[in-house]
Amino acid sequence: MGAWTIKSQKTQILVRIATTVIFLALLSAAGAAPLSYNRDIRPILSENCFACHGPDKEARKAKMRLDVRESAVKKEAIVPGDPEGSEMIHLINTDDEDDLMPPADSHKALTAEEKKILAEWIKQGADYEPHWAYMKPVRPEVPNMGGGNPIDNFILAGLKEGSRELSAPASPNVLARRLSLDLTGLPPLVTGMSDPAADLDRLLSSPHFGERMAIYWLDLVRYADTVGYHNDVERDVTPYRDYVIEAFNKNKPYNEFIVQQLAGDLLENPSVEDYVATTFNRVNQISGEGGIQDAEYIAKYYSERVRTTSVAFLGSTMGCSECHDHKFDPFTTKDFYAMEAFFADIYEKGAYNGDGRYNEGADIKEYPGFTLSNWGPVMQVPPSGREEKLAELTAERRRLEGDLEKTTPELRSAFGDWVKDLRAKSGASEPQDVAILDDEELPLVGVEKVTDNVYSGTIARRQKGAGLVQHIVETDANPVTLAAGDKLFAWVWLDPKDPPKQIMLQFHGESAWNHRVWWGEDLIDYGKGSKKADHFHSGELPALGEWVRVEVPAGSVGFSGGSKITKMAYTQFGGTVLWDLAGRHTDTADAVLAGFPENVREALKKSNSGALSEEEKALIFDYYRTLAPSLAPVRAALAMLDEQEKELKSGGRTTLVTLSVKPREIRVLPRGNWMDRSGEVVLPELPGFLTADGSLGAGKERLSRLDLAHWIASPDNPLTARAFVNRVWALFLGKGLSRDLQDLGNQGQWPTHPELLDWLSVEFMESGWDVKKLVKLIVTSRTYQQSSNVSASLQEQDPYNLLYARQNPRPVSAEFVRDNALAVSGLLNPQVGGPSARPYQPDGYYAQLNFPKRAYQPHNDANQYRRGVYMHWQRSYLHPMLVAFDAPAREECTASREISNTPLQALNLLNDPTFVEAARVLAQELVAANEQINERLELAFDRLLLRRPTAEELTLLGELHRGQLERYKADPEAAKQFLGVGLAPVPDTLDPADLAATTAVTRALFNLHESITRY
Predict the structure, then answer these.
(1) What value does the mean pLDDT take over residues 107-119?
(2) What integer is the mean pLDDT of 142-171?
(3) Cα-flanking dihedrals φ and ψ of residue 786, to 5°?
(4) Nearest-CA neighbor of 601 among 589, 610, 613, 609?
(5) Rounded to an integer, what distance in angstroms lies between the CA atom of residue 808 and that of residue 801?
(6) CA-CA distance, 693 to 698, in Å (whole number)?
(7) pLDDT digits over 625-679, tens only?
(8) Do 576 and 495 touch, CB atoms closer than 8 A?
(9) How far, in Å, CA of 70 to CA of 420, rounded?
(10) Other CB atoms closer than 10 Å to residue 321's CB: what's the count?
């Protein structure tokens, strides 16, 4: 068993010191070779000095900066060429505890080697350099070391002269298993990987490649199936997960991948895929808890997006600037909030409860095809395979919309006649009835309709029951605006054989159901006890057995001129009632313009005086297009397209998406305090030290998320390609060229091979941001294909494998541990994409989840055996198997997972029903195929580890089988219970005791360190 240990700050410091020691060992004479500020000095100062003498002016001591040469020299902390005359050298070596730097209370201390390096650097002139990651990468010369792959030449050049040799190639079976796991997360048994040279392109083209790559990306973007905060309930965002998988499978250029996620909704004519990609902005933790403050949680969401965007795409810790200027990097607090301002246009609210408010002026009706869920804007995503047909419909829609926008002389003439006719009609004086609800609205889903007894049109609706009965009709799509003096009415027919005791009309204003009128007995609870507009009594029940108009002045139920009705409810207590036409009785001018948008109605009223602006004329004319008889065929064709699109999207899933609305005001929050509004107002702006030329957004009044996305995805951005390439390198070599995958800044680590990192970054960008080409370049190198075995000399010279003279073994990701057990047993369901799957989970695990209480229901079909990437991700109660194997909760952006080796992992592999069932199903095949235990073991080892068992392994496992066989023969009931775990049926043709004993063996094989490790 290997000694995997949890990463810690101490480990990182040891690695940093080891890097320095290796560098010093490579110098031909101590202190003779030039030191690099970025490589050798900045890490020491950043770790020990910048917190008090760095970029953060609020924390700065003695008004002295060590991150700026001019300041350090002016204060004589550094005297170039004179270490003895430099105050810094004196203070880091003094025996006086009061003067010693770093001070004792900082809990930091310089090593003897670090002190020596600082002195030598000052002796050499104390030259500074811009931080390496903030300089645009330039393609360096590839060293001529005889390697066929540029990567190998850089690695060989970094090895000590005289011992520039890589480890021997990994054996074919080890390399085949390594490539299969690295490229798909699945064993060769599933992928068919046997010849690395011949099978590589097939693996890169496998749909499982996208699943493998998605795991690391979903960690970065904090993807989960639940909201995280408070009750941690579900919200559907699974189409985004499938978008990520598909993007890697289709080899979407990484720069396009970035732009789609940050700002797909702002692209010209965005597609369904573009909108789904923007779920990236919406998978943050959100809350609907009743007592939270809307403004506080809006601040939380914005700051979290800055943290995620800066780490995920830039490898930068801008989040450190929320309360003060960054202590180690040039990011300022203003930079942080100016970055927040890019996201201020997202259609959302902070508190998803009755108190939360969407952005000012936000109206989902202005976004056809989108609806508001409990968690904000969502869209229906069509099932897979219908994208091409939907794209055709989209193209046809654009053509028809173009026809709708055409202006012809005939249309202009008809428009003039229409306006004249409206003026003539609105000049009459007799009030009229205007329908609010009629035949088109009445046949609601779940409501009984009648055609043999109606007041008007062809249908009425029947409500009946013993107690309270109610049906609500939405009018949000076309809210009713009332005029002063209006009356509200409805036609009712009360069944004389089964009359109700009370009837009520309810109206929802712009914010609440507080407008009610009733007839009969006072039995309905709504507003009961009040004598005001929320419970206005209008008299006794209407006559029975005939159609009666019930009517109430709008003012009596609390409406004034200009009020809006957004919903109506037909309500009764007991009996049988037919409800028909409902509406308002209003003056003629208002009746003629009923149903018109308010701004159009006001402009048309104004047109009687002839004093219209050009904008108002254009407004009226654009509205006329929606009514013009000559354009009816175009509108009908568009309506037909709507139905076709609706049909194509049916059966799909929904996902939260980003929609752009009026941006909120963003202020710098002093010390990050959301209640302190004294800070300056900021507009979207990019970090100044990274955009010094000021070219981006020149002449624009306000930068957008699309500008941000284009800047991040630009080849001129020094961070984006480096951050991505560094992480991809870590996926296949175990560690990044710069070890800290989250931070390329001053608190990160100088790359072990900076020229290689820059060469790969430039190569990646110039290839068209081709992800698969980058992956192939790495995995075809000798560096990647080395053995992971380590010799004693290598262990002594380079214990952390900083120079890559061997491959790094490591545990496979949590999801792949489970995938491999399912795969070798034959249970794995290889379906790509779709809703999340719910594997077995301990009973009562969700006992503490409240509001509402819930019980976990595992899938009892093929979904039980789907890959780990599709497992339901409950942030607050992550599946125990995922927790045991170091998967993150995804509450925040995670650039690298912790690595541990704990007893809980072994217990999980032994007892989780998934692994017990997989072990049993594998055992079934072994028992059915072979009578002898040794033959079974050879087959099992080949399937699981792609090798033959050793003689010692055959002996030990044979003894295990014999002991378990005796046990289960003596206790048949125990064998039956053991074999009954899981959904898969147990063949009745096999000896239960032998099958149970063999299952104990396969369960032990799953628990081998080798089984969960990629070498």
Answers:
(1) 93
(2) 94
(3) -65, 160
(4) 589
(5) 8
(6) 10
(7) 888 888 888 888 888 888 887 777 777 899 999 999 999 999 999 999 999 999 9
(8) yes
(9) 78
(10) 28
